[in-house]
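Thread: quick sanity check before group meeting

JM: Hey all, I'm pulling together slides for Thursday and realized we never actually wrote out the predicted structure for the chain we discussed last week. Dropping the sequence here so it's in one place. If anyone has concerns about the input, flag it before I start.
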Amino acid sequence: MQIFREIAPLRAFLVEKRRSGQTVGFVPTMGALHPGHLSLIEASKRENAITVCSIFVNPAQFNNPDDLKKYPRTLEADQSLLEKAGCNVLFFPETKTMYESESKVRFDFGDLDKVMEGKFRPGHFSGVALVVSKLFHIVEPDTAYFGQKDWQQLTIIQHLVSELKFNLKLKSIPTLREPDGLAMSSRNTRLSAVQRKKATVLYRALHEARQWLTQSMGVDEVKKKVQQLLENDNEVKLEYFEIADSVNLKLLNRVDESDRPILCIAALVGEVRLIDNMFLYP
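JM (edit): ok, ran it. Output follows.
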């Protein structure tokens, strides 16, 4: 596996690969890799000659400086996992490489970044869009791979790609889960053993909400039942549970299959913030 820390050598390497007709798949990450990330690497390897993974903990997308400080950093283990997975290239830039000075660029996605994650993390998606734009320009992939767990992020990136005319395809890969249903996440490593068990309530809430909705229960009633489910444990604090159109993220007060509804949830388990989602109609 080739490892690059600077932009110019990475670009030169990829230019040579493209000249020989090889396609490039790209998996952007913030490290602390788990099998969910590796499923993205595997998808890229199936479809491309060259797979590039980036690891960069992007300061521009963190609202809470303490959250940025505590974000797990496990480069040595990550590198080993990527090598075993057959990743071809690791791009691991320093912060000063990606941000030579404080950025003045801001993105506004209208209603897309004002709901759910955007409501609770103002400015988060502007920071995501900024670093993803930089990475797309640097790597110039044929296809970029993202996990379904960050569905709102993926939807916003889809609009970014369309609006800025990036010459690439986006692919969503289904969320990988632990045997008890918990969505795999780098943040799970920060949970205590007790909190880890309690965190499964997010998946249970989504699963039960889907059943209630398919049994024709109203959206408002389902929201109340989800809130009651999470209120049973004072260490789990619900931030939001919403049902949205999966294409335009419009929040729904009734469900219809034509809206392609997705159920989205975010909660604090202790001090660790977790998100998850599930399509209403699989």
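AS: nice. The first strand starts at residue 2 and ends at 4. The longest helix spans residues 124-139.
JM: adding both to the slides.
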